[in-house]
Amino acid sequence: MESAAGFDVVEVVSRLTRLRVDSAAGEELQWADRAIDRVRPLLDAWQSAVQFRLTLPPPLPDPDPPVDPAGPRGDADWASQDVPAAEPLPSLGRPAALDSPQEALRKHRRMRLLADLPAWCEALAGGLVSTAHVDLLAAAIDKLSENLRIRVLARGDELLRSACQCTSDRFSRTLHRVIAKAFEDEGVDRRQRQREQSGLRRGVDDATGMHWLRVDLDPERGAVLFQRLDQEREAMFRSGSFTALNSDQIELQALLNLLAAGGGEQQSSAKKAHVSVIIDIATLTLGAHDRSVCETWSGASLPPDTVRELICQAEISYGLTVNGRVVHHLANARLATGDQRDQMRMMYRACAGPGCSRRFDHCQIHHIVFASRDGPTAVGLMVPLCTACHDLIHHHGWSVTIDAQRNLTWTASDGTIHAQPYVALADHDQPQLFGADGPDPPAA
Could you tell me the pTM of the whole model? Predict the structure, then answer.
């Protein structure tokens, strides 16, 4: 049985079941890892098709059964005709645990989406997109009104073209833009809708006794909270406090400090939070479009109306970019200044490392010419790197260079060259959404 991706499913699965993980060679284990990734989407597509079929009513009986030329016979005679017996189904062993409500919901959303977009089902079965791509789209449109859902589904082929060419993380950016455009075209007050969807849930885990919180915030209030947390976390680091805590525990302590009565434990300033927003002029003045950049520092999409209101209330500092690149700025400081970090965020949403998608607010600013070698603290000679990518340069023999257009050339420790062209935020998702060079989605 050959899949749409061009491999024999039965042969691959049979080989996987015979694999002895504890004694297999490295090459065989690598093959198995890739094979599982290829088979899993196919199974998910099959399961969605099965679940959709189960939702349909059973077929009606044939109203005109065939007439036997030998004359009528009793029911027992009809039952004794040479009707092929159904092949007995193989045992599935001990009953498996039932799906959690969350997993059952994910499967239902996936089934509904693939029924609406058959081309996506074929792409999933053929390995052109992953289950993560499908679940992202299914979860996003499940929260929309029917009119908005129809608008997004109408762009299913464009979204599929994007998903076929990028990771699920990058695909989420394209998806956010399409949904923002749908809100704009429908004339829906997205800000009000996001506020209505905000809320807080809390509880205690019966097994562990741990207390838990789940907060869903609209981008406007979420950006303020995140910025306050970032300021408090930075103040904690500067004070030398809590050095024994891990990252999650530091985030928790920062929140508890902000909640402390009277701000007694708070390390950062209690003044109004500074919120950074990146928005292009066309979106600010005319509204959302397919190349819109309208997001918070952390990359969360904002409705243009929200940004306009924030601007009316704010003390504004701003920067301008040309072709997505901030004008050169030089500082005498050994580390990047706050203004320089703001300018870097206007150019990068995530780590500049090869293939890395770690968020900008988790990155350090790297000097292309090391500061220890008197490299200048200049925007044109700095890039944001996460800890892992930074370590490649400082501890694992990698190097990186940058040209005047911010194109990077990475050289691995074994001499392998990785060319990484610079892509402005506004263009970041466009080759995937509208590019003619990418694979066409399967025909519905």
Answer: 0.53
